[in-house]
Amino acid sequence: MTKPLTYLAAYAPELKDQVQQMLDQNTLADFLRTKYPDCHPFTRDHELRDYVQTLKARHMKKSASLSKVIYDNKIHVINNALGLHTYVSRVQGGKLKSKNEIRISSVFKKSPEAFLKMIVVHELAHLKEKAHNKAFYQLCQHMLSNYHQLELDMRLYLTELEINGEVY
Question: Is the pLDDT of residue 130 over 90?
Answer without folding.
Answer: no
